[in-house]
């Protein structure tokens, strides 16, 4: 079987971008992926093939054009990190950093200034009722960097890990910063999102279909949206988000879209060319049934359960409670620390689940049950709460009463 010489291909590509140390740098790039494939864990969303090498070379070429006087080794190091770091698990990231430190021992990293973007992300987290956790903000920035170097990407992670809020916060931040310079030496643009679930509709409804009886072609949802985007007069960014599991039934038709030519080929024979302002984004829990061809064509941003944790969810939920309950937020926080979090640890250590659950799912179930008790206290717009003075709502009794608070929390858990 013929195997392409990755190092030679990388060397020629780097020479074409103006790198004077192309031979040495190409060997380091290829060695990085070779060592990563050998030492890192095996994950469905990992890819260390030729397309991964090509994406690093393209990112390095973009950086070379933006910073022609920057050290070439630093450019390659930054390109490798921008393309690969967002997809790694925490344990694999430590090993990957060790590989980079061995291959680039004398290169000192220069921090990238995300000043206005970082500030906008944090302020919009607060506006959307979210907690601006540092790890979550980092994932938003990694998503931004991935959209710069890739037009097709996947947000991978279990339910409740923050995938949806990640792209929503970034979208609002970019729209808010419209016209201001970004770290890529360009300008932030207004961003629009179009969300659809490809598994809830047929292939004909998604891409379009030809009616055998009337001999008429009917556009699908995706082809209609892309056609509108290609004819738009503005340069606004458009994210087409596929929220649902990825499988070969519908994703294989996207291969030409995810390639460098960026063409949507319809069964009618029509070809729609995507513009540079379009991004295909997939929000998935895993890629267990996705083909390697699809994985290699997309950039990856992995959000694990450790990105948010449980406590930010609790803090955000307490802020949504009615005023009568919110005055007892300190007591509620103590209850969660003393009973709820240990309760989750007990479940993970001692309970055998027939159907597996996530900590975030159990936490949201807890919130919903508690909300059933406080829903009578929630006021609508312009409504005043009229209750007798002697009346004490059940949740307040539970919070005040040390005798029954443990039973109540355990019941919800």
UniProtKB/TrEMBL annotation:
Protein's GO biological process: microtubule-based movement
Gene Ontology cellular-component terms listed: dynein complex
A Pfam family per the record: AAA_6
Highest taxon above the source species: Eukaryota
Domain Dynein heavy chain hydrolytic ATP-binding dynein motor region: residue ranges: 1-164
GO molecular function, one term: dynein intermediate chain binding
Descriptive protein name: Dynein heavy chain hydrolytic ATP-binding dynein motor region domain-containing protein
Organism: Biomphalaria glabrata
């Amino acid at each position: 079987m013929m195997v392409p010489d990755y190092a030679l291909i990388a060397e020629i590509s780097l020479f074409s971008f103006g790198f004077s140390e192309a031979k040495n740098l190409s060997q380091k790039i290829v060695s990085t992926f070779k060592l990563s494939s050998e030492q890192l864990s095996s994950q469905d969303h990992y890819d260390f093939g030729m397309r991964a090498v090509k994406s690093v070379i393209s990112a390095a070429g973009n950086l070379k054009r933006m910073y022609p006087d920057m050290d070439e080794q630093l450019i390659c190091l930054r390109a490798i990190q921008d393309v690969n770091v967002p997809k790694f698990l925490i344990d694999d990231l430590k090993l990957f950093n060790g590989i980079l430190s061995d291959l680039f021992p004398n290169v000192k990293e220069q921090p990238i200034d995300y000043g206005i973007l970082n500030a906008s992300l944090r302020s919009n987290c607060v506006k959307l009722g979210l907690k601006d956790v540092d790890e979550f903000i980092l994932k938003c920035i990694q998503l931004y960097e991935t959209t710069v170097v890739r037009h097709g990407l996947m947000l991978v992670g279990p339910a409740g890990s923050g995938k949806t809020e990640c792209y929503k916060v970034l979208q609002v931040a970019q729209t808010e910063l419209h016209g201001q310079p970004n770290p890529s030496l360009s300008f932030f643009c207004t961003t629009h999102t179009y969300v659809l679930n490809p598994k809830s509709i047929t292939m004909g409804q998604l891409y379009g279909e030809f009616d055998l009886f009337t001999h008429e072609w009917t556009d699908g949802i995706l082809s209609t949206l892309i056609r509108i985007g290609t004819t738009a007069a503005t340069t606004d960014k458009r994210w087409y988000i596929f929220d649902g599991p990825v499988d070969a039934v519908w994703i294989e038709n996207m291969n030409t879209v995810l390639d460098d030519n960026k063409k949507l080929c319809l069964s009618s024979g029509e070809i729609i060319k995507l513009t540079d302002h379009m991004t295909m984004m997939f929000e998935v829990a895993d890629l267990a049934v996705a083909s390697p061809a699809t994985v290699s064509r997309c950039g990856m941003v992995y959000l694990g359960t450790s990105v948010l944790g449980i406590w930010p969810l609790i803090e955000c939920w307490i802020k949504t409670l009615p005023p009568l309950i919110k005055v007892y937020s300190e007591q509620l926080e103590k209850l969660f620390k003393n009973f709820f979090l240990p309760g989750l640890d007990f479940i993970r250590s001692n309970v055998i689940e027939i159907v597996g659950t996530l900590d975030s799912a159990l936490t949201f179930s807890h919130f919903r049950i508690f909300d059933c008790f406080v829903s009578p206290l929630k006021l609508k717009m312009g409504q005043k709460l009229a209750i007798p003075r002697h009346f004490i709502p059940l949740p307040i009794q539970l919070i005040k009463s040390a005798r029954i608070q443990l039973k109540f929390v355990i019941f919800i858990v």
